[in-house]
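Input.
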Amino acid sequence: AAAKPSCIFVAGALALAAAGASRPRVQPPRWRCVQRQRTSHRQRRRASMHQFRPVETEAGSASDSGPSASQAIVELMYRQFNTGNLNGTVGCFTEDCLYEDLLFGSSAVVKTREAFRELLPEHPVFMMRTLAETMKFQPPKIAILADAMSEDPNNLKIIVEWHVEVNGQPLEAGRGISVMTICPRTGLIKRAVDIAEAPWRIVGAVMVHCIRGVHLA
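Output.
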């Protein structure tokens, strides 16, 4: 009687084994490993910039077809700017132009040509000339030179990567990028956005207070 349960257990196990052997074996699912292609930040940036084409700059990298009208107005603006020609610089912009300096936020956003004319003298290039005239000394030659320029002809946008030079020598922490939109009707600059390294633009802010202090004295 004591062996009866064990016999029942063995018989049940054999029955389950026989039933399992008669069933078709189900293959486990096979997982396919898909490796996602990783792209670097530089690759993504190049992909998003595919519609831009390189154009000629002062550093080289010439274009076979020569500068377009959009490129020409931007190059003219930099020439006028580097010579300290306020009217010539402002004349490259539309009357309803929008200028933004992202470093200074809303305090450096102007929405008309005349407002831009009032803001421009506070730029370091113009401020140095004003300070030299006030203090009676020979001003250093400050210029913004384009390292690379790209154009999106479909949307009339120009992107300029630039650096600052003082007396022909590159200024430390004096690089920046400007994005400009050209007006299709007038061919002038309708919008300009500057993104500069902080030390370069802070120089101008400090010089503003210095010159104002001299005038008050």
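Confidence is low (pLDDT under 50) at residues 28-54, 56-63, 207-217.
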